[in-house]
Amino acid sequence: MPFYCSSLVVEKKQNYTSVHEAVKAGDVEQLALMIKSGAGVNEVDVVHKFTPLHCAAHSGSLECLHWLLWHGADTTHVTVRGWTAAHLAAIRGQDACMQALLINGANTEAQDDRGCTPAHLAAAHGQSYTLQTILRSGANVNVSDRNDWKPVHYAAFHGRLGCLQLLVRWGACIDDVDNNGNLPAHLAAVEGHLHCFKFLVGKMASVTHTLKARNDQGETPRDLAEQFFKDNILQYIDGMEKEGEHPEAQEVLAFPAHDAAFKGDLLVLRRLVRSGVININERDDKGYTLMHKDVPIWQLWNF
After folding, report:
1. How many Å apart are CA 178 and CA 145, to the nearest integer?
2. Domains observed in the chain
3. Are 164 and 157 in contact (CB under 8 A)?
């Protein structure tokens, strides 16, 4: 009888050196076998002090994350920087993992070593979709870290326009100052984030109030822009002051990526996405994503 190799097909098992590797690979079967063989569900790795749950949240291994939660993984365990699994899901924009963590009791008010909550970190990293999930769970939109930075300060400082828009829609106070007296507008100016600066100027009570606001060192947004050579901010302020210009057409200004998508301006759209100003899944004030603006999916994914 002839011998056929195909009749002896055997599935090759991946060998992992730790349960953390299995989780990163999304291999829930090997995860289950390793836990059954004695690995701890809350076992901590040597380097980053990550538990398997941290690894799942960081890598987006949703099936493994569900399995770990069902088997008693600790959502409160922190890394060396004070991050829970929810903090890591926020940083990485792992929205499905964030939802699963919240359903299983993860604390959205948990603070890391700098006093940052998941909302702070989602705003800092431009993860607007995950930030919205956090806010919908009831998280405080105006929570402060140890420097009195709120999520809106992080969004302004890092140039995350989409997160800034979202936070304002959820009631973020853009006239709150940090422990150095800086408004979010000061932080946008010092980093040269023009889209964010324009948005904040347009949302404040008055243009003059924003442009003349001084921090604890007596510095206005103009002073900071001059100090750090942010010519784009200076040119905008000059136009506002000399011509009495007021930011109009807020709908277009507030959502430049959606406006570019609607016009078919892929060069502008690509620049906004690549620079991190907006996220590809950003929604405007009517809940529309860029895909609703008739941008072909292959053009977005080839950014």
Report:
1. 9
2. 13-140 (1.25.40.20), 152-253 (1.25.40.20), 255-303 (no CATH)
3. no
